[in-house]
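Co-fold these.
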Amino acid sequence: MTKMSHAEALVTAIIDSMAQDERVYLFGRPLGLGPQRALMSRLTDRFDERVFDPPTCEAGNAAVGVGAAMAGLRPFVDLSTGSFSFLAFSQIINEAAVSNYMSAGKLPAPVTFHCLEGARGGGAPQHSQNIHGFIWNTAGLEILAPSNPGDMYGLVRAALASNNPTFIMNHAKLMALEGDVADDRKPIPIGKADIKRRGKDVTIVAISLMVHDAMAAAETLAREGVDVEVLDPRTLAPLDEDSILASVARTGRLVVVDETNMQGSVASGIAGMVAERGFQSLKAPVQRVARPDTPVPFSAPMEAFLLPTAAKIADAVRRTLPKA
Amino acid sequence: MAKSKKPAAKSKIPAPKPRKPQPGTRQDSAAFLAIYRQMALIRAFEEAVRSLATSGLVPGLVHLCSGQEATNVGVISALEPRDIIASHHRGHGHCLARGAEPNLLLAEILGKAAGYGGGRSGSMHVIDLEHGNLGTNGIVGGGIPLACGAALTARARNSGAVSVCFFGDGALNQGLLHECMNMAAIWKLAVVFVCENNGYGEFTAIDDVTAGDSIPARGEVFGIPSKTIDGMDVLAVRKAALAAVTKARKGGGPSFLICNTWRYGGHHVGDKQDYKDDAEAKAWRAKDPLPRFAAWLAKHHGIGARKLSNIDQTVAAQVASAVDAARRAPEPDSSALDRHVYG
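Predicted complex below.
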């Protein structure tokens, strides 16, 4: 195991993919590295000629990446802040996601998109969007949401090796997080959930940053004698429905946590899926924890008020338990 | 820089094939006749689609390019097999000029299993990678960045391929065009921007929605050489395209060609075109690229009406056979709905 930050795992995965595959190019240099931007020199020292610095034009950047992928490259397109990628939705959804389908498998578009999404603190409505809920409504994309450096490394490697268009949803608050990256440096299979904590009483399905709040909630609940299982889907599309259903079959109780607005959230989609396919397993109504359906305000106390927290998740878990 | 151990992966772009005799490089009547044949094929094909659509046999909307054959064939005749095109919603002519099989194209337009997309794409998204065609495109301006991306791949691979994006005058007002012209200019991409200006974006005359009195200025502002061409004259289009393609292939960067042409039909089959002026339509019909090129062939190559009539009959038979095959072809298997969602 090697200790890395989330940002370092991202950059290292791109470097290792570039070393292994000459088709891998980087479009967009910042990668949301912020204070860790010195990491980028590791990449440019080796592969500067495979890095393009595009102008600020998200639609054009995304679609040029798609065209380059159609013609044979494996571009990693950094769309910077997730809120900006709405400008590129037609290129992601109408071009990348459907090219393989419309060509009956003859023209895949193996492009990887990356953005920093979510409430970052003071981002206000235009820098705080969680876009994975929007993108989740699209067929044909692989959507990855790594919650820790080990998963980030393996999923970026998998994305750049995939024949499909992929979208890495990277929560802005994760970039400084440290964690272990396995020394075998292998890709993580797309479509496989990971159980971050085993438990027998309640399943929490948590996405991206929310995994950490769910783990904190599980600690609190353990002290109350409640044994919580935390499942991280890692891949939102294709979703590992079977692992979620198997976990709910073991525990009988489900809380789903997602930082997006409640309406149209992945939490809502997973709750619906379990209600349909796993109803017999459920001993209590499914609980969803997500943001209220408002924009994310600029004010720090207002922002904190609306975000899911470990305390809110623990409360949701308690609502699934029999009354004492 | 550390070198990768792995050899460069093979391009998906087909390797160049031996070039056919090129009109213009030699006074080769056969090659000029091939240009005529392609234009005649497109006209016959489009009129057959019109008839099928009017009979209610084409699902959805279909957009025909009758009248625009000279821009389709003029540009594409200047390309090599390794080159890439990205087309638009009025793109059957581009597909055919690039070498698409009329049978498979028509099968796709009718949504049949035998079509290029197995019935998943229809007229507006015909993809034919074998002939370097990234597809017709249902999004106005959607193909422009795809061609620029393919040009970036050509640069990365040093393949010498040139990309061409076709778009209509409606796309002149799409921001994406300007984003892409900027990128093509700063990176000196081997891309040719071809505006097929047929005077109408959907149902709206270009002058009503397009500011300024110069369309070339929209390329020139990025430092891209830009030129307006008589898009009803296949040889004028071809000459301009050859110059732009040659320049791009030599590393000279992008060009912008504005081919003024005319759409005989409406925006789609069934559009009554009550927004068009009869006198204007008549004037454009008088410039029809097919008789015009036929007259040129007679004058400069002594090619008589009978020879061209033979070509007309051959392509008519080819289209009739495609219509017959496509109509009889089976529908796709609906239970295979999710096939190809992922590769």
